[in-house]
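Lab notebook, bench 4. The sequencing result for the construct came back, and we need a structural model before the next group meeting so we can plan mutations. Quick request posted to the team channel:

Model the 3D structure of this chain.
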Amino acid sequence: QVQLVESGGGLVQPGGSLTLSCAASGFTLDYYYIGWFRQAPGKEREGVSCISSSDGSTYYSDSVKGRFTISRDNAKNTVYLQMNSLKPEDTAVYYCAIDVYGSITDSSWSDWKEYDYWGQGTQVTVSS
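Done. Here's the predicted structure in token form:
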């Protein structure tokens, strides 16, 4: 059974850092794509980042580029999102998701409909 579990969320001050983890099971991470999405109250679900588990290609939204870094540990079937220089507007529930059919492309990675399974989400709050 495919399962994704996020962890690492919490409260952090503006300018601080936080690292999220997404532990995957039920598939071999090497051959899939894992994306991070976030959703704040009253806002649309936003694609934050994505990584190819096979070749390590990464993608970022313009709003987080240069501040967030996605990485993977294939041995642990885990994907990480390191978030630096956090801003109040980064406050949201963060979700990881997986594309099990390998359909993700350079232009579609941020489209939530391309993903097949989702984690439960973890809250990130940036506030002083």
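The CA atoms of residues 52 and 60 lie 12 Å apart.
Will bring this to the meeting.
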